[in-house]
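Subject: for your reference before the review

Hello V.,

The reviewers asked for a structural picture of the protein, and I figured it would be easier to keep everything in one thread rather than splitting it across files. Below is the amino acid sequence we used in the manuscript, unchanged from the supplementary table.
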Amino acid sequence: MKRILPLFFCIISLQHFTYSQWSTDVRLTNNSANSFMTFNNQTALGVSGDTIHLVWMDDRDGNLEIYYKRSTNNGSSWLADTRLTTDTNFSFFPAVAASGSTVHVVWQDDRDGNPEIYYKRSTNGGTTWSVDTRLTNQVDFSIGPSVAVSGNTVHVVWQDFRDGNPEIYYKRSTNGGTSWSADMRLTNDPNFRQPASVSASGNFVHIAWMDLRDGNPEIYYKRSSNDGVSWLADTRLTNDMNNSLLPSISVSGSNVSLCWTDNRDGNLEIYYKRSTNDGVSWSSDTRLTNDPNISTSPSIISSGTAIHVVWQDDRDGNNEIYYKRSTDNGINWIADFRLTNNAGASLAPSVSVSGLVVHVAWQDDRDGNNEIYYKRNPTGNPTSISIIGTELPVKYSLYQNYPNPFNPETSIEFDVPEPSFIKLSVIDLTGREVEILVNENLLPGKYQVNWNATGYSSGVYFYKLITNGFVQSRKMILNK
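And here is what came back from the structure prediction:
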C-alpha cells in the first residue's frame, strides 16, 4: 500500500516559496560582565545541518576567555554556555567553522607572553572538546585568525608581525585538525595590512584583506586552486583614493562574494563585488547602502544563488544591525532591513544560513553591559527545492535531469526515504564543484530542484547526490 504524506509535511514544503518575518531578539548570554563578538572578518557562527555553533569572548571570569554555545534545532533553542579556554591571560577574537560533526575554533591568545594563534576542536558536534593546540610559535605578534573548512581540510589565516611588518600567514590541516602544516607567508611587501577573511569550497581557497601598499587602504585578494598547497599572485580588487576596509568573503561553488566598508562617498558605506569563476575575474563594485551616516563591519554568507549581508549602521542615531539579501547571485538586492530597534548599541554582527534558515548574532549593550543576542528568519534563505507527489520513497534515488540537453535551466529529481542530510552538487569535467544545489537536512519525500546555468559555459556537467552512505552521479549537457 502506498504511504501518503501527512498534511503538515506538504505545508512545510510550501515554505520554500514563502518568507516569514524575523523572530524577536533572543538574549544568549546573561551575566554582569561583558560578552564581545569578534571582528567582521572572523566568522562567529558555524553551521552544519541543524546545529548552529557560536563563539565569542567573555570577561565574566576576570579576564577575557573564549566561550561557546550551540543550538541543535536550527536556532529554536540553545544549550548552556561552554567555556573553551582557561588560563590567566587574555584570549581574543575567536572564529569557528563546522563540517559534519567536527567543529573547529581558532583564536588569539597571549598566554605565552605574546599573542599567538591557538586552536581546538570538537568531533562530536560541540559536546566535548580537545585540549588547546598552539598553531604559531615565534616572538612577535600573531593576531586576528580566520578559519574555513572544506571536507576534511581546515584553512587558517592570520596577521603576523614576525617579518617586521604585518603580513598575512596561512596554515592548514588535511586531516580535520589532527596535525598541521608549517606556516606559509602569503604576502610580501613593507606596508601595513589587516587580518584576512577566508572561505573555501572544494579545492579552492579564497582570502581577502585590507592593504596599504598603494598609499591608502585597498581590498586585496588571493586564491589557491589546490587546497592551499600553492597560491596565485595578490589581486587588487578596489581602486579609489579613499579607504576600503574590513572585507568579508564567502564562496558557494564557483561563486565568490565579497563585501567591505568604503568611504569613497564621503562617509562609510557597504560595498559588494562578486566573481562567478572562482576568483579569476570580478564584477565592478556595487554600493549596497546609501545614507549619510556610518555603515560598517559587514558579514556575508552565500548559499547557492542567495547572498546575505549584515552590518552595523548608525542612521537611526545609534548603532543598529541591518540586513539585505540577493536571490540572483548579487545582481539585484532587496532594500535595507533593520533587524534591531533599541536604545543601546548593537554591534559586530555575524551571519550564516542552514537550509531555509538565516541566522544572525551580534553584541548588544541594551542591558547595561554587552551581551550576545541572536535572531533568525526560518524561511529567509529561499531555494528552488520542492516536494513533488505524495508517496514516500523506499530507497535513495537520483533521476536523470529534464530537459537534457538544456539551456539555461533544468530540473533534477531525487528520492529521500528517511530523514537525512542531503548534499546535491554540480561538478564540471575537471572534477571541480561549481554549484551546491542542496546542503541541508530533509524529511522523507520525492524532491525536485532546479539549476539555472546562466553564467556557465556550454559543455558536460555532472550532478552528484551524497547522503548516508549513498552516492550517485549523473551526466547532463548544457547547450547554449
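For the response letter, the relevant points are probably these. Residues 7-14 form the longest helix (8 residues). Residues 1-20 have pLDDT under 50 and may be disordered.

Happy to draft the paragraph if you're swamped.

O.
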